[in-house]
Amino acid sequence: MAQALARESLPHLPPGTYEAAHTALNAACAAYEAKFGHVFVISVKGVSPGEALDHVLTAIRSRLANDPEDERQVTAEELRRLAKGRLVELVAHAGP
């Protein structure tokens, strides 16, 4: 899991997102990294671009309350969701 986490980055915010939102996300991610020792990962597949920021901020605030073992399990599941989404995209773009 550590290798997968090392390759992840902060969630991308939709264009035009207010600077305050970037500041809030950066602060929440810093608190998360300080507590758990790795970047915050979350899949936003199926979330509309307009809802992505609220979804990410709500999730990170909620997950900050987790104990490290519970968060390890949540993070592993999010990594699986990200990997699955990437594989589906690769297969879809590979063609026949």
From TrEMBL:
GO biological process: purine nucleobase metabolic process
UniProt keywords, alphabetically: Purine metabolism
Originating species: Streptomyces glaucescens
Lineage: Bacteria, Bacillati, Actinomycetota, Actinomycetes, Kitasatosporales
All residue ranges annotated as the Oxo-4-hydroxy-4-carboxy-5-ureidoimidazoline decarboxylase domain in the record: 19-87
Name of the protein in its database record: Oxo-4-hydroxy-4-carboxy-5-ureidoimidazoline decarboxylase domain-containing protein
Gene3D superfamilies: Oxo-4-hydroxy-4-carboxy-5-ureidoimidazoline decarboxylase
InterPro entries documented for this protein: OHCU_decarboxylase (IPR018020), OHCU_decarboxylase_sf (IPR036778)
